[in-house]
Design goal:
1 helix; mainly beta; 7 strands; 2% helix; 66% strand; elongated
Length: 196
């Protein structure tokens, strides 16, 4: 059983300004049950120990993921100058709950009785729960002059609930580019091996 959904919005309130936002959800329920006959050698089926038992395991889990992303981008061209800036944020949450158990020696092991409650030996039950959250802020600035000289500056900050002592991490980067193929003194040489 699984349900997946997405919503997406994009608007341009003024020329050059774009606002995008999306949210997605994923909900899943998973269950499993496994029965092992006594003719398969397991820790519950050791003839030398006087055990010839069947074995049953079962699990049920519920999983949920939510993701949201929003970005604002502004682009502008003035003569030979072209630039854009972007700022955004994302956050996500993942949580689950699962429970399971096992048992041995179902006295009447027909498929209709393959339930842990019918086991007569070594019945065990357990459950688990977990949740993780992440929050991110990101930004980018791009500049291009005459389609020849380019510079990009990126910055990202991430926080995760998995790291309680130091939840934040920061990741800046800078990139520079020079398109030699657009230089006039090289275009005149007609170098066929030099291309974009």
């Amino acid at each position: 059983e699984r349900i997946v959904g997405d919503l997406y919005v994009e608007i341009t309130p003024i020329k050059g300004l774009t606002i995008k936002s999306s949210i997605s959800a994923d909900y899943k329920v998973a269950e499993s049950r496994n029965f092992t006959w006594p003719n398969i050698y397991t820790s519950y089926n050791k003839p030398e120990d006087g055990k010839e038992w069947n074995f049953i395991t079962g699990n049920l889990g519920r999983y949920y993921t939510l993701l949201e992303e929003t970005t604002i981008t502004y682009s502008k061209e003035i003569g030979k100058h072209n630039f854009s800036v972007m700022a955004g944020q994302t956050w996500s949450e993942y949580k689950y709950y699962s429970m399971g158990g096992s048992g041995a020696n179902i006295l009447n092991p027909s498929p209709n009785n393959w339930y842990i409650n019918n086991a007569t030996e070594d019945r065990l039950f357990n459950d688990a729960v977990g949740r993780a959250r992440r929050l991110s802020f990101l930004g980018r600035a791009f500049y291009n002059y005459d389609n020849r000289y380019m510079a990009t500056v990126n910055f990202r900050a991430d926080a995760s609930s998995k790291f309680t002592k130091q939840p934040w991490g920061f990741f800046p980067s800078v990139a520079l580019a020079w398109r030699l193929s657009e230089e006039h003194f090289l275009k005149d040489l007609e170098l066929t091996w030099l291309d974009n």
